[in-house]
Amino acid sequence: MTGAVTPGSPILPDTATVRPGRLVIGGCDALDLAARFGTPLIVYDEEHLRQRCREALTAFPGGVSYATKAFSCRAMAALAHAEGLTLDVASAGEFLVTRSAGVPADRLVVHGNNKSDAELRLALDQGVHRLVIDSADEFDRITALTGAGHLAADAWLRISPGVTPDTHPSIATGHSRSKFGLPAGAAATDRLIERMLASRSVRLRGIHMHLGSQIRDLRAYDVAVRKTVPYLRAWDLPELCVGGGLAVAYTANETAPSMASFAQTVDQACGDTLPAVRLSCELGRWIVASAAITLYTVGTVKHTPDGTTIAAVDGGMTDNMRVALYGAKYEVLAPGRPQGRERPVTLVGKHCESGDVLAADVMLPEDLAAGDVVCSLVTGAYGYSMASSYNRLGRPAVVFASGGRATTVLRRETPADMMQLDVWPSPQEES
Ligand SMILES: Cc1ncc(COP(=O)(O)O)c(C=O)c1O
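Above are the sequence and the pyridoxal-5'-phosphate SMILES. Below is the predicted complex in structure-token form.
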């Protein structure tokens, strides 16, 4: 294993213990899990998930939403709900997953920059906690739907404060050219707020913003909150949701801000001018990212003429798109190998793309060989939820580990699952 990753490291799940040749999570030995459930396998530390929910709620007593897009399944929705969080859903699919986990509609925060009428109807009729209105067009459609008999909603208006945080451009959302929300400072934003306040289709409770994801520099939140507070003051709105986006460390050398410093930053920015506002946040990555590891089995090891060692595993870009999408970096361990001589290895997947890389130049044992299990760390956020079935590989299984027991929460996707969508030849449509 890499010497840098030691127990207690923020890139390991909270309950992980690491000893030469052994990695234990939630009381379950990683190699036993790989043997029992097969690989690729995503293992979440359930205790870690619960602790993150609790820590966030302590920091934000005004409310915390779990952003289900980071990792969506019924077990996770039920866990976040049981821990007292509301749940952010951004599509009918996310809505139904959470509802079918037993989460009441009035614990849902409904998002989306282009919600369909069907999605709006769901939110209106089921009476969600907050419907986050993203555009004037959407407000017009809500007005038409409530005019046609659907119920009025408690709403937030999403504002884009015109702040570019220190993150990858693809996951920066709070800037002035954003496709999300209405720009702060624009006359159109004021006009929409006035229309919303005069409307019987919505009860405007406050303002929502979300600056982006994997944000390290908290000054972005400070600036954004200070730009948003005037809206609350001008229209006497009692609620501000500052979104999510708090960064986590992915590698042993990275650092990330603490939850307490995040809360303190927004609290101060708001409290200086508007102490009575109800502040909430909406976290995905921070809750789930470092709770999980992904186990893979090495299938081949190659040595290129320039001295690079390439190890190919049985998953790849279909279970972790983040490397190809954002150039994300990961740390990899070989749980079955005692600590020893190490060499840089590029860990690749089994897909038909050269960009199918899971981690470049990670330190792995000199004698890494076919059949070894390796594990990628901090894979709990935007891995499974962005997974695809490219090359018809099928999505991995996911287990929650706790107290020495592992429970399957998402079973492995099989070719038979994929064939269910493939309806050719369709008898009804044949002429
Ligand atoms: C509206 C909204 N809220 C919250 C989040 C969660 O962000 P993160 O997972 O970085 O905390 C996202 C993710 O992009 C989002 O779009």
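The chain has a mean pLDDT of 93.
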